[in-house]
Structures are given as C-alpha cells and as structure tokens.
Amino acid sequence: MIKLRENIASMAGYVPGYQPPDISTWIKLNTNENSFPPSPKVVDAILAELNSDGASLRTYPSASSQKLREIAGEVYGFDPSWIIMANGSDEVLNNLIRAFASEGEEIGYIHPSYSYYATLAEIQGAKVRKFGLTDDFRIADFPDRYSGKIFFLTTPNSPLGFAFPLQYIEELAQKCDGMLVIDEAYVDFAGYNALELIKKYDNVVITRTLSKSYSLAGMRLGFAVARPEVIAALDKIRDHYNLDRLAQAACGAALKDREYFKTCCNKIIETREWFSAELRNIGYNVIPSCSNFVFASTPDRNGKRVYDWLYDRKILVRYFSDPLLSHGLRISIGTRGEMEVTLEAMKELG
Ligand SMILES: *Cc1c(COP(=O)(O)O)cnc(C)c1O
Fold it and tell me: What is the DSSP string of 112-149?
C-alpha cells in the first residue's frame, strides 16, 4: 500500500506550456522563449568546457558557482554575497518557500500570474492565498499589513504583460511582514527594475531567469538577489551541485556579452510595439506590454477560436481556459518575420 503525504496525493501538479515534439516546424509563441539564439560566445564557452573528449565532465562542477556570482554581481551592482545562482529561477522559488513557509503557513500571490508558486506551496504543505487585480492593475484588497510568510509579485506580470510602478512595489515591501519575492522573469523588456529596493528593505528578494531575455531556457539558469542572510539560508537548502558544468560555462558567457544581450532585447521590444499596434488596427485590445509577449483580447472575445485557427497553421500561442483570460491570447514576441506571418494569419481569420 502506497501512502503518499495527503497534500501530494490531492494536488494536481503544474502543467507547463506545450512543447511539441517537432518543435522546429512550428512558429512557437506559447512559452515566452526567445526566438533569437543565445550569444555565439555561449556556444564557444560550452564547447571549450567540453574540451573535445569531455574529460571535464568526469569531475563535479563548482558547488557554489562562485565565479558566476561575481560576474552577476558586477553586472547588476551587488557584492557576490548578495547573489545565488539557480538551476532555473524555478529552483530558487521552490527553495524560498522551503526557507520561509512551514506546513500550514501562508504564502500569497496574484491570480492571474505564475501559478507555479501555488504548486510549490502545496508540495510544502503551505497555505495559498490568491489576490485578484483591479481594473487598473493594482492588487485588489491588499491589506495594510500582510502577514503571510511570502508574497510573490510577478512584475512584469505574466500573462498580462503590464508592470507595477516602482513606487507601488515599494509600498508592498512596507506592507509585508514576511518576504516580498519580486519575480522579475521579464524585467529586461520593461525599462526599469526593483533592484534598488533590496538595499532598502531587508524583506525583499528578486528572482531572475536566463530563460527569456538571454535565450537560455534549455540550459536552466536563474539567480536571486537578496540580503546575505537570505542567500546563506538558500545555500543551505539547494542541491549542492545545482548548476552543471555546461550550464555554468554558458551562464558566464551570456552574462558577460552585454552588447549581444541589449541588441536582442531591443529588437524584441521594437517588434512588440509594432505587433501591438498592428493588432489594435484589426480590432484587438492589447494590454501595453513591458514583457516579451502581449496579452490580446480578440475582437469577439473568443481566444479559443483564434488559437485553433493559428494551431492549424502551425503557429502555437497560449490560450488559457480560465474565465478571467479566455477572451484573449498570450502571444510571445518572436522575430519580426515570425510576427508578420502570425499577423497575416490573424488578419485572414478576421
Ligand atoms: C519563465 C518564468 C519563470 C521560470 O524561469 P526558469 O528560470 O525557466 O525556471 C519564473 N517566473 C515567471 C513569471 C516566468 O514566466
């Protein structure tokens, strides 16, 4: 007789966006990956690490990824003791819950945002409180003092694409008795970020990923910035060799190539603005986006109809059956060429 923990037996489990087996035959705009390849220096660094016969793979990688903390520290303006590297930012989100929320304690997040926080909390046996959004994209009924152990703030928001103003985020940091974890997965497309709040408030943590703006979803790389006491706690919890050798090589090269990174982000932002304007011209309601995707309500408020039409043309976008979101689609911003094909298909449907 298999006796699972009650919360594991009853939970549904997270369902990620669809990854088709014949991925290269699709225009894939459903999981906010980057359509541009990573910096060529990333490939060079991985090949150099492999070193023709792969001998380096015999030995464990750096357990602390210390060099990467130094590089990220330099890029983002923090002492390395304020940074931890992660096997995807999902890893560090998980470890934050393990560090701060015991069984029965509460974490909070916004619906709609990244529902994986709820899955991670369920595994831990923590309670989850969802907050809604007002029409002008503020948190509905956020208390003057929030006593949950962690509040997860996805900004820019996914799937809606807007970002909270810095002033508003700062007020939330003041209202949280527990930690405010600011998930900045998309912040490189926004033009501003909340890093300065970490220096001002000891309860603020920022998580970042290399999956979107650095084109490295396949390498599983992320990091968090927080006070050294928080970083030290997260270091106790993580798998000791959480980043493999090839991931560490890729990460360093990607973070160092600022020129390539900026050029890619700018291209995506430019294409996003063009695509948003074009969609508005054909009757879509597009939320102004600070991300590498847009959320667009279709003219007949029927996201599924457009999703199916695009799917039949091998264009994959994200449809959510949730009644809060089913009137629209979340469409990642790919290359200009990919977005032109997508737009033409949408025009054809009318
Ligand atoms: C993509 C995404 C992540 C996960 O990032 P990984 O580094 O790929 O694990 C975390 N939060 C949000 C809001 C995301 O969209």
Answer: SS-THHHHHHHHHT-EEEEE-B-TTSSBTT--SSB-SS
